[in-house]
Write a structure and sequence with these properties.
The complex is a heterodimer of chains A (461) and B (226).
Chain A: H1 12-18, H2 20-73, H3 75-88, E1 92-97, E2 103-106, E3 122-126, E4 135-143, E5 149-155, H4 157-207, H5 223-271, H6 276-307, E6 316-319, H7 320-337, E7 342-345, E8 351-354, H8 356-373, E9 378-385, E10 388-395, H9 405-409, H10 427-437, E11 441-447, E12 450-458
Parallel strand pairs in A: 7-9
Antiparallel strand pairs in A: 1-2, 1-5, 3-4, 4-5, 6-8, 9-10, 10-12, 11-12
Helix pairs in contact in A: 2-3, 2-4, 4-5, 5-6, 6-10, 7-8, 8-10
Chain B: E1 4-8, H1 12-24, E2 28-32, H2 35-44, E3 49-53, H3 61-70, E4 77-81, H4 86-94, E5 99-102, H5 107-122, E6 130-133, E7 136-139, E8 144-147, E9 150-152, H6 156-167, E10 172-174, H7 175-183, H8 193-205, E11 214-217, E12 221-224
Parallel strand pairs in B: 1-2, 1-3, 3-4, 4-5
Antiparallel strand pairs in B: 6-7, 7-8, 8-9, 10-12, 11-12
The chains are: A alpha+beta (461), B alpha/beta (226).
Chain lengths: 461, 226
């Protein structure tokens, strides 16, 4: 159980923080914040640099013009240019001071302490003469060759305003994006959650006994679809095994009852007699019945084990031709005694990984069937077909009618013609199980000269 | 020739059935009903063979067998088990048992296998080239069989069948033992395939004038002997 993974002392919040949902939403939020912050920072930096470049160009241009006038036209021209510019430009600031720092001309009362002539361009809040509030200026300053200093500036409130607007807009966008990110994360979690909850509900339903429930597929082929497919395949397999188990127990219960009842009746009858011959006969009969029951149980269990895939690891490369010859050799005298005859036609030598004991049992069952229910000569042969090995047991009788094939393959299924003959109806089902275990199948063929049971097995390693 | 045999079996009915059978055939059977006592008695008692149930209280039969073999005690062991599948059988044999018998079994089958494992351990490794029983002689090198002066022509499989019987002359061999020993298969052939092989062989070696050598043992199998 998943709840066992949480330490018993963990509080409600620790528990909640363990939730994948919370972690997922938190991760998305964190990423959103980092991304938004980086965007905000880079845009404001770009805008600021751009606006500063424009502002500084104006101030530096004006200063350099004045310096050029001073150099080329003399002192009086500089003075008149300063005064003219001061009257001209209401948004400007202008100051010319002598070596002692006394004002010669300009609309500033004194040289501001934050401005030096060494810098290319600087920003400062200044009170011009007559101003009641400080105004932001972009300032370019310079020292003239005779020791006087010149300061030229231009208001920057407009660019400051633009910058503030941009920053405000970006911050608002970021704040608006936060709840959207939360909603987005929650939606993403919800979508994943719905699919997982569906899978969990299906598994819980199956666990509670609703064996036929399956996870719905959306056909997208994504990892959830793959998970759903895998779970469905697993549930199908469990269903098959359960059906198998039910079949075996039902059939066993049914098929054990009649021979056990027969045994019981014989014993009851024998208990009323003192005739030693009858007693002896009864014991013999009961012993034979018990043997038949044991054989039936062994076969039924062996089939179930094979269907469950047990024993595949015991497969070893075996020469099928030699094996057919061996089995043929085992049955040949019996066939001859019954005036039937047996022939092995296995011209090819073929090494195929097989479970030797189980395949031997299967072949033995097929020969036994041919002997009991077939007619004429029995032929064992080996061929290849479509990359598979095909072991055939043929006889010259009519065989199983096509319409009754399924019935003959059903466990404990015995055709009417076989009811009088000893057997449990497990011979062919066992052969079919052996073929399936070897990656193949069982097939019947009817020919003019008789009936063939074909057992296909995979040759791959 | 009475032998000393240890039976480790927790089911009282099965144990009584085996002990009674052993006594009837002149063997001395000691019995204990759990694995711990079984291991103690087996390491100590100088037994000729051990009949060991696979599922025991206290100590599992396979674990007991492992402990015995680890202690270099090589007393022959026959495992008894209710587990009938091919896999279980292989597990039992690879764990170091000499034979594996599935419950329920006929006592004759157990006795035959018991005598087989005890003899197997008793006989040396000397390579025999001639096997004989009465007037029947088998030359393994020249692959010839004679009954008295009369040469007998046998098919390869009949030769191996007779060889198996001769190697176990005087003992009862069951049909399953023959299927395992001569054909190397453990499955249940269902019909009396082995009987037909035996009657063919019998026709060839027990001529009309000879004393029969191959005897049918009712409810068990066959025995070769005079």
């Amino acid at each position: 159980m998943s709840s066992e993974a949480i330490p018993p002392r963990a509080g409600r919040w620790t528990r909640r923080l363990r939730s994948s949902h919370i972690r997922f939403i938190g991760l998305i939020l964190l990423l959103e914040l980092l991304f938004g912050g980086a965007l905000l920072l880079s845009i404001t930096q770009l805008v600021r640099a751009d606006l500063d470049a424009a502002d500084s160009a104006i101030a530096i241009g004006a200063r350099d013009t004045l310096l050029a006038i001073a150099r080329e036209q003399g002192d009086s021209s500089l003075m008149s240019a300063v005064v003219a510019r001061m009257n001209d430009d209401e948004d400007g600031v202008m100051l010319l001071v002598d070596r002692a720092g006394r004002r010669i001309a300009g609309n500033l009362a004194a040289w501001p302490p934050t401005v030096s002539t060494g810098e290319r361009w600087t920003k400062a809040m200044l009170y011009r003469i007559g101003d009641s509030a400080p105004v932001p200026f972009g300032i370019a300053a310079a020292r003239l060759p005779d020791g006087r200093r010149l300061l030229v500036g231009e208001r920057t409130d407009e660019s400051d305003q633009i910058r503030r607007t941009v920053e405000g807009a970006l911050l608002t966008a970021l704040l608006l994006a936060l709840p959207l990110a939360i909603v987005g994360a929650w939606l993403a979690v919800h979508i994943i959650d719905r699919r997982i909850a569906h899978i969990a509900a299906t598994a819980a339903g199956v666990g509670a006994g609703d064996i036929d429930r399956r996870v719905l597929l959306d056909g997208s082929g994504d990892s959830f679809d793959m998970l759903a497919r895998a779970i469905n395949a697993m549930l199908d397999r469990i269903g098959d095994l359960l059906a198998e188990l039910r079949m075996v127990t039902d059939s066993l219960a049914h098929d054990l009852r009649s021979p056990l009842t027969r045994m019981r009746a014989r014993i009851d009858r024998a208990m009323e007699t003192d005739d030693p011959a009858l007693l002896r006969a009864t014991i013999d009969g009961v012993s034979r019945e018990a043997d038949a029951l044991l054989a039936m149980l062994a076969s039924a269990l062996e089939i179930s084990r094979m269907e469950a895939g047990i024993g595949r690891d015991r497969m070893a490369p075996t020469d099928l031709g030699a094996m057919l010859a061996d089995i043929g050799d085992l049955y040949e005298p019996l066939m001859e005694e019954q005036a039937r005859g047996l022939e092995v036609a296995a011209p090819v030598s073929m090494k195929v990984p097989v479970h030797r004991e189980l395949l031997g049992q299967a072949l033995s069952n097929l020969i036994d069937n041919a002997l009991k229910y077939g007619a004429g000569r029995v032929t064992l042969s080996l061929r290849t077909e479509a990359g598979m090995a095909m072991l055939c047991v043929a006889d010259e009788g009519a065989g199983i009618p096509q319409a009754r094939e399924a019935e003959a393959l059903r466990r404990f299924g015995r055709l009417d013609s076989a009811r009088g003959i000893a057997g449990a109806g497990l011979g062919l089902p066992l052969v079919a199980a052996v073929a399936r275990m070897h990656g193949g199948r069982l097939r019947f063929a009817r020919r003019d000269d008789g009936f063939v049971v074909e057992m296909l097995i995979a040759t791959g390693g | 020739m009475g032998r000393k045999i240890l039976l480790v079996e927790d089911d009282r009915t099965t144990a009584d059935f085996i002990l009674k059978g052993l006594a009837e055939h002149g063997h001395v059977g000691d019995h204990c009903d759990n694995g711990r006592d079984g291991l103690f008695m087996a390491t100590d008692g100088g037994y000729d063979a051990i009949i060991l149930d696979r599922m025991l209280p206290g100590m599992d039969g396979l674990a007991l067998l492992g402990a015995l073999r680890a202690a270099a005690i090589e007393t022959p062991v026959i495992l008894l088990s209710a587990l009938a599948s091919v896999e279980d059988r292989v597990t039992g044999l690879t764990a170091g048992s000499d034979d594996y018998l599935v419950k329920p079994f006929a006592f004759a089958e157990l006795l035959a296998r018991l005598e087989l494992v005890m003899r197997r351990r008793g006989s040396g490794t000397a390579v025999e080239t001639v096997l004989a029983c009465g007037t029947l002689r088998m030359d393994l090198l020249r692959r010839e069989v004679r009954r008295g002066a009369q040469a007998i022509d046998l098919q390869p499989r009949e030769f191996r069948l007779l060889e198996y019987l001769l190697r176990h002359a005087g003992q009862v061999v069951t049909r399953t033992m023959l299927l395992e020993g001569v054909w190397d298969y453990h499955f249940d052939p269902g019909t009396n395939v082995i009987d037909v092989h035996i009657s063919r062989l019998r026709r060839k070696i027990d001529g009309a004038d000879e004393r029969p050598l191959i005897h049918t043992v009712r409810g068990a199998g066959y025995r070769l002997g005079e």
